[in-house]
Design brief:
The complex is a heterodimer. In chain A, 55% of the residues lie in helices and 9% in strands. By secondary structure, chain A is α+β, with helices and mostly antiparallel strands. Chain A folds into two domains: 120 residues, Beta Polymerase, domain 2 (2-Layer Sandwich); 118 residues. In chain A, α9 packs across α10 and α9 packs parallel to α12. Chain B is of the alpha+beta class. Chain B folds into two domains: 98 residues, 2-Layer Sandwich (Beta Polymerase, domain 2), CATH 3.30.460; 117 residues. A four-stranded mixed β-sheet of chain B has the order 3-2-1-4, sandwiched between helices. The chains are: A alpha+beta, B alpha+beta. At the A-B interface, α4, β3, α7, α8 and α12 of A face α2, β3, α5 and α9 of B.
Chain lengths: 251, 230
């Protein structure tokens, strides 16, 4: 069973490898940044590695950088923790085009941490396009869930169809509350989203979004998965009705 | 009209109390689509979509929406652009009305086609680099990576074209359409390099790590060049 030390080790291994003249900053978000790691459940590595822009513009430098990142990925993933690779950006990119959806993580106190190099958090900026994209993402997510309707009518699910449903449920649990909040104009950090939902959509029953959080979705039967999916989509349709009032589209 | 489409229309009309329209529209990279527009009083769409799924012709994709929510289809989406962003342009300019009244395809005030390109670039920079490129290279999944990067290139080209109001391209013509719409030498040079790698891929040569790294760089470089058009 992994312990907190494994997470600290993963972080150290990664920063040791990516450190170098081209590395401007390594910034953490998520449970590791907030000291709320749940060993075995929390994933690594929620991090932004910011590099000098020149490195991304030259093919040889880019290849060297990616090889370096892969060494970091290989050493961290070998620890056996739930792993996904970190984000990487050029310095100009992250200062100009940071996705609006995730800006609260860096701008609000206590949700992020600088692990290495410069503290860029106060300089991060976004664009009007990204703000619109963030506010519109909820509507796209609703259509994505509805597009899974053809799976619910199948008596037998193939492994890839099960994978699609489990992916949709996992994403619903993880990002749907944030998308609802942002669509309603509440720019909160991802971890605050669930608690903010009653304020953003006061008359909605959001219990279905949390009711399956304790379940191991991979081990559920076809019927159980479809039942949860149906419950989540129904809740999302209720949220959709409520959100429409919060983000009036210009006509 | 195709028999399976007739059967689908009948099924839709049985399923919903009030169907405003059913429109068939073409797509460039994905199957063509059916846009079903229903009355605003339909509270839940999910049970109807589930019930209809067996009647949707297998070569078509169903999108079902309430009349009052139609403007949502003009909004940018972080999802695959082809189904989402160009849908209303294709419905407007090439849609075939199969049932009911014409869809209101008037562009809303918020519609900014450049936002579609910006959404694709954000998706690649924020999710593509780590979840596609690093993850695949880390797992030595070179072939799926190349496949995904080729689709990414198509998406970037297409969204760049749509950002200039052009959507009349197909999978086979998108590179040429892009070249004639964007005459910037740096973009052309970036696209030429991409095309050379794509030509190697089309010869079914073995895909190794170096080729995967090269294509990853070229896509990254190309997306950076496209930034100034957002």
């Amino acid at each position: 069973m992994p312990n907190l030390g494994d997470y600290q080790l993963a972080l150290k291994m990664c920063t040791d490898v990516v450190a170098g003249p081209e590395c401007v900053s390594v910034m953490l978000y998520g449970s590791l940044a907030r000291n709320l790691v749940r060993p075995g459940h929390s994933d690594v590595l929620d991090a932004f590695v910011v590099v000098s822009d020149d490195v991304l513009r030259n093919e040889l430098d880019h290849a060297r950088l990616i090889e370096k990142f892969l060494v970091a990925c290989a050493s961290v993933s070998a620890l056996g923790l739930p792993f996904h690779p970190f984000h990487y950006y050029g310095c100009d990119e992250v200062l100009t085009y940071h996705p609006a959806l995730f800006l609260p993580t860096w701008k609000r106190h206590g949700f992020s941490r600088v692990q290495l190099g410069r503290d860029l958090r106060s300089e991060l900026n976004t664009t009007s396009h990204s703000i619109l994209l963030a506010r519109a993402a909820f509507y796209s997510f609703c259509r994505y869930l509805l597009s899974l309707g053809h799976l619910a009518s199948r008596n037998i699910l193939t492994p890839s169809q099960r994978f699609s449903i489990i992916g949709a449920l996992t994403r619903s649990r993880k990002v749907l509350p944030l998308l609802v909040c942002v669509a309603c104009g509440h720019w909160v950090e991802q971890s605050e989203a669930l608690a903010t939902l009653p304020k953003a959509v006061p008359d909605c029953d959001i219990a279905p979004l949390t009711s399956f959080g304790h379940l191991e979705l991979d081990s559920l039967s076809r019927d159980a998965l479809i039942q949860i999916l149906t419950m989540v989509v129904r809740c999302t349709e209720d949220l959709h009705r409520a959100v429409r009032g919060g983000f009036e589209l210009e006509r | 009209m195709r028999r399976d489409l007739q059967a689908f229309i009948q099924a839709v009309c049985r399923e919903f109390t009030c169907v405003s329209s059913i429109t068939l529209y073409p797509a460039a990279f994905a199957p063509a689509g059916l846009l079903v527009q229903v009355a605003n009083h339909e509270k839940y769409l999910w049970p109807h979509i589930v019930a209809l799924s067996s009647t949707v012709p297998p070569d078509l994709v169903l999108t079902c929406i309430r009349e009052g929510d139609l403007l949502e289809l003009w909004l940018p989406s972080p999802r695959t652009f082809e189904r989402e962003a160009a849908m209303m342009l294709r419905v407007r300019d090439a849609g075939a009305l199969l049932f009911g009244k014409s869809v209101n395809t008037q562009e809303p005030a918020h519609f900014d086609p450049k936002c579609i390109l910006a959404a694709q670039l954000e998706a690649f920079t924020h999710y593509g680099r780590n979840h596609i490129v690093l993850e695949a290279l880390n797992c030595l999944n070179y072939k799926p990576l190349m496949h995904t990067l080729v689709r990414t290139i198509d998406s970037l080209l297409a969204s760049a074209l749509i950002s200039r109001g052009r959507w009349r391209f197909t999978h086979n013509t998108v590179h040429q359409a892009f070249s004639s719409a964007f005459d910037t030498p740096t973009l052309h040079s970036a696209l030429d390099k991409l095309d050379r790698v794509l030509a190697i891929l089309s010869m079914n040569m073995p895909i190794d790590r170096d080729l995967a790294l090269t294509l990853s760089f070229l896509v990254d470089h190309f997306s950076a060049e496209l930034r100034c058009y957002t």
